[in-house]
Amino acid sequence: MAASERRRRRRLRRLMVAEGPLLALASFTAFTLLPLSAAANVLQEASQRFQPQWSAGGMVASQELEASRAGRDVLRDGGNAVDAAVATSFALAVSHPQAGNLGGGGFLVLWQPERLSRGRPLGPQERRVGQGRAVTVNFRESAPLAAGPDLLLDASGAVDRRKATRSLLSSGVPGTVAGLLLAHRHYGRLSLARVIAPSIRLAEQGVVVSKALADSLEAAAPLLRADPESTRLFLRPGGRPYRPGERLRQPELAATLRRIAAQGEQGFYQGPVAEALVALMRRRGGLISADDLSGYRARLQPPLLGDWRGHPVIAMPPPSSGGVSLIQLLNILEGFDLAALGLNSAAALHPMAEAMNLAFRDRNRWLGDPRFVAMPLERLLSQGYADELRRTIQAGRHRPARELDAPPGARAAESPNTTHLSVIDRDGTMVATTTTLNFPYGNGVSVPGAGFLLNNEMDDFTALPGAANAFGLVQGKANAIAAGKQPLSSMAPTLVLTPAGGPLLASGSPGGSRIITTVLQVLLNRLEHGLNLASAVAASRIHSQHWPDELAVEQGFSLDTLQLLVAMGHRWRLAPAMGAAHSLEALPGGGTLGAVDPRRAEAALAGE
Hints:
- The protein is an alpha+beta fold.
């Protein structure tokens, strides 16, 4: 018997004495399969069920094959990771209209090896991290100048869900175009025309409708039929959804992309595209004005920096809550030996769920747009505060949500139809970017003559403190609607370095409030439990967010594990598949490993 197995069995005996057999079994993986000897593995079978894809150079991971290929081709033409991320994002606006977008917003996190800076001084928003420098791009949508705190309420003072999600009042000022162009201008290598060319070609020639896109369009058909322009753009004559194999051409979108390629931001935020958007708003009661569009600015911001057992973690600052909450969770959980407790054992899941509730309590209480609210970020991100929170986690007992904070007055939510992509190039530059319209196809309204859908991101604000949004998040006054303010987001594009400071992981996910916990579990699976990247992405996930007081679990957890969690006081429900964490890993000798999340069909890797 191996020494490690003897130690584990001694630990089980001690736990049975201290905690009783039920909790002891929850704390211990009783049946450890010892690895087969090399001689026994005559079939050369892999040790794990899922395997990442390898590239000798860089790689792109996104939700759609043509978009990933657009980024790959840019890499092959000498572009860097930023060029490829921008190319892939614009292509997703064509081939993945349910979430890829020009009419939404998002966030981008970048890390670049120091040797590529060629002596350039550190920019004001850049931070040295490991053997390179990191920066983020904030292109979150913003509230129109005419917006106020009562924007989404009805006459009785309650949240009007139609206003919040299906009307033009739900649309924030789009940020995607400004953000992608800002990233490209500062950090890209190829011309903007070369980077946008693949998306123009896709829009003009058309994309072959996949089974996943056909199913999505069919599900969204009632929403799209409510808007004449969306009906014309995304449905066949007579309002019939596209079938797999048919070709979806988008000439108006191609014209908009050509304007952007030729004129930059002015091609979108001024001129014919802007005029069409403003005319739509005036005609149908929206708020976005010409001043809103011409005044929108994406911003470079310094990243948040965390750590997991010596691995530097680079994350997005507010108005994304993803980075704050992710780093807070890592700080809390670093005090537990999760590897010894066992991957997805009840003993490991319990402190993870309790930590999630604490992080979401703080998220909803404190976080918002830093230009409008003061946040105790230094304390929230400190190891000392994490130590305090860890001491409140009770072994074997779930703390009910009411013990953490007062119950909310209602429920709310944040949409799962975001899209994430990751890029690593052959030089080791890493990009993680997440963009969204909020709901699938946003509010379902398209800009006449411009070819793109509008977001319904105003629902991510706190329309009424104590009322939940579309993702069940119950948020506070810090995230209240105000003119020019950006709503709080759960998007969490994340990069991880090796302990020596070199490139390692790029990850992120769609999924609303579940984004944060999805990224957390991918990182823990890879860095703590030692799964390969594909297994780390595929493993079953949990999610808890303080309110509602329940533990969401994916398919794949045993009834025995769930019964142990119930014995600790958790109330669980079976949830749909969580997220789509398309992730990449840089190899130390060069080359890249990639894994797209099997939870969403037709995601694709494209390597050089």
